[in-house]
């Protein structure tokens, strides 16, 4: 039986872990610590288009750090783990052989998956130095970043050659051991540096055991089996608010990293003043891209898997989730520092949901759009992620922000197929968004301020009534 992608199908609690391997996670950065030493950091600098940067630091105290406290001694079961990872099978239960390693983790809940990691690329640690890269310019768009925690390339060439020989003639399926965090874009290599070098030399996807920390209990989400007009509700208690949609349909704002990005509104005056305004700071996408594998093949995943990367980014609150397939829709593209206005039946089709992109439209990667066209023609239905301030009162006259899936949406449009969307609606806010959001995105631009004057008065009036 061949290996598949390493999904976290095994759940394990570590109540008394030593914390030798631990993550320090915040809203915009994740740091891997080994025995207290910061080994790798995945963070964001806060600006630019797709300018999420990763910094990796390795201030080890010496050239050959052991990364373990003096009080720790190797358990007898350690050799069982060492032998197991030299050859594993897809049906193996990883929990038992991993027990000695699990005891080194910080206390908490973890998910464990076994499988092959496609399109793996390595970003090597350089002791005492910081490295940065653009998320989509110097690393492949599709693929998984592996960050070593020791010397790279590994020093024992004979060991690499032995693994290459064993892998090439199918005598063994050795496995790497990786740890990751829902807030990190990277997989951190704890064990298997020589194995990884062998897999890369053979141009094969490495077999991996992936241990992922759980930050919140999200197993209450039910399976999104098919299209639905109704939302399934779920409470989000631990979100960081990187993505925050506020207001209501006709007066909503999408905030990213605390800054307003898109404001949409309608004053109700009967004129063609339905507006969408985009900030001069383009949206910086981050963890939404972790949904890529699940969204490309949604039939295999539950709502838990589909939303597990997006869920921590949302602000705490109650949300509705559904698989939404709009029969009629149109896309209103808003360029940076611009305002777009429309009026149903005059400047747009008579009816239809409005989708507001948060990235370049039309998307620039023609090859990716073509690949999605091929998948859709073959019957697959990859998911576009839409986010809105509340459930629509009228499906044919409502607005949703497209937060992921622009290439998929373009492919659906090209083929004339209704897009399948993972549609998330915030249930908490019923009042109009803050007029300060609109003022922030229009800035001092007199053209924007003039174009949105009616909307600003409308929002200010609603804010005054709410007080």
List the helices and strands and how they pair.
Elements: E1 10-14, E2 21-26, E3 29-34, E4 37-43, H1 78-84, H2 95-102, E5 108-116, E6 120-122, E7 144-148, H3 157-168, E8 175-180, E9 186-191, H4 193-201, E10 207-213, E11 232-236, E12 243-248, E13 251-256, E14 259-265, E15 274-278, H5 292-296, H6 303-307, E16 317-324, E17 329-331, E18 339-342, E19 353-357, H7 366-377, E20 383-388, E21 399-404, H8 406-415, E22 420-426, H9 435-442, H10 446-451, H11 453-466
Parallel strand pairs: 6-7, 7-9, 8-10, 17-19, 19-21, 20-22
Antiparallel strand pairs: 1-5, 2-3, 3-4, 5-10, 8-9, 11-16, 12-13, 13-14, 14-15, 15-18, 16-22, 20-21
Helix pairs in contact: 1-2, 3-4, 7-8
Provide a descriptive summary of the structure in words.
With 467 residues, this protein is of the alpha/beta class. Helix content is 21%, strand content 27%. It is built from eleven helices and 22 strands. It has a seven-stranded mixed β-sheet with strand order 1-5-10-8-9-7-6. Strands 11-16-22-20-21-19-17 form a seven-stranded mixed β-sheet. It is elongated. The protein starts with 9 loop residues before the first strand and ends with a helix.
Average pLDDT level: 76
Distance between the termini: 63 Å
What is the helical fraction, as a range of percent? 10-25%
What structural class is derived from the secondary structure elements?
alpha/beta
Strand order of the largest sheet: 1-5-10-8-9-7-6
* Rg from alpha-carbon coordinates: 24 Å
Quaternary status: single chain
Would you count the extended β strands for me? 22
């Amino acid at each position: 039986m061949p290996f598949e992608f390493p999904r976290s199908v095994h759940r394990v609690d570590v109540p008394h872990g030593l914390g030798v391997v631990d993550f320090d996670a915040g809203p915009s950065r994740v740091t891997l610590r080994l025995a207290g030493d910061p080994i790798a950091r995945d963070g964001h600098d806060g600006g630019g288009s797709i300018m999420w940067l990763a910094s990796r630091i390795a201030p080890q105290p010496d050239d050959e750090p052991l990364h373990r406290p003096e009080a720790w001694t190797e358990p007898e079961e350690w050799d069982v783990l060492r032998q197991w990872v030299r050859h594993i099978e897809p049906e193996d239960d990883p929990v038992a052989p991993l027990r000695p390693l699990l005891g080194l983790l910080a206390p908490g809940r973890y998910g464990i998956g076994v499988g092959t990691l496609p399109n793996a690329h390595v970003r090597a640690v350089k002791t005492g130095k910081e490295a940065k890269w653009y998320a989509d310019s110097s690393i492949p768009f599709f693929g998984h970043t592996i960050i070593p925690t020791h010397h790279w390339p590994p020093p024992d060439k004979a060991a690499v050659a032995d693994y290459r020989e064993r892998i090439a003639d199918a005598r063994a399926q050795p496995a790497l051991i990786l740890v990751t965090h829902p807030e990190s874009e990277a997989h951190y290599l704890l064990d298997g540096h020589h194995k990884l070098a062998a897999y890369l030399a053979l141009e094969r996807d490495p077999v991996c055991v992936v241990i992922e920390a759980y930050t919140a209990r999200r197993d209450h989400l039910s399976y999104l089996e098919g299209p639905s007009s109704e939302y399934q509700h779920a409470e989000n208690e631990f979100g960081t608010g990187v993505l925050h949609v506020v207001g209501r349909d006709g007066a909503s704002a999408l905030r990213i990293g605390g800054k307003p990005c898109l404001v949409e509104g309608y004053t109700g005056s009967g004129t063609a003043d339905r507006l969408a305004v985009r900030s001069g700071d383009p949206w910086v996408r981050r963890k939404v891209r972790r949904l890529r594998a699940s969204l490309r093949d949604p039939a295999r995943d539950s709502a838990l898997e589909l939303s597990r990367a997006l869920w921590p980014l949302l602000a705490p609150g109650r949300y509705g989730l559904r698989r939404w397939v709009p029969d009629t829709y149109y896309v209103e593209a808003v360029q940076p520092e611009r305002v777009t206005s429309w009026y149903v039946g005059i400047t747009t089709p008579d009816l239809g949901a409005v989708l507001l992109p948060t990235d370049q439209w039309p998307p620039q990667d023609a090859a990716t759009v073509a690949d999605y066209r091929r998948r859709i023609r073959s019957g697959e239905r990859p998911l576009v992620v839409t986010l809105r301030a509340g459930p629509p009162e009228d499906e044919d006259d409502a607005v949703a922000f497209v937060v992921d899936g622009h290439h998929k949406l373009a492919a659906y449009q090209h083929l004339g197929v209704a897009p399948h969307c993972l549609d998330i609606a915030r249930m908490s806010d019923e009042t109009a968004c803050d007029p300060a959001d609109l003022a922030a995105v229009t800035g001092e631009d007199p053209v924007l301020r003039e174009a949105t004057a009616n909307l600003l008065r409308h929002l200010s009036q609603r804010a005054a009534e709410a007080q």
